[in-house]
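User: Here's a chain of 112 residues. Predict its fold as tokens.
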Amino acid sequence: MPHAREGRERGVGAVYQEPSLVPELTVLENIFLGRELRSAARVLERKAMRRKAREALERVGARVARLGGRALSVAERQLVEIARALVLEADVSSSTSRRRFSSGPELDRVFK
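Assistant: Prediction complete.
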């Protein structure tokens, strides 16, 4: 797939080894950055965004929904990246060995 948008449309999400979160934004804002949910009137659907983000974060075992990007550990940032891919309803898999990820109990849950 030559373009990232085409991959997203086909349900492929990328979780990079170096998280690409914007430290000044909240976890919710980072998850939906560039993919905000909007009504037909173009109004942000914050309630739906919070619900989807919470579901994805719970799925990966992250309890960071109310934090800003700057307050997250490296492992938590990686979990938010995975949650971002899940919100896109992408299939999530790792082509990187577990050793190359940060260590910690958060990531142990992801690789179970």
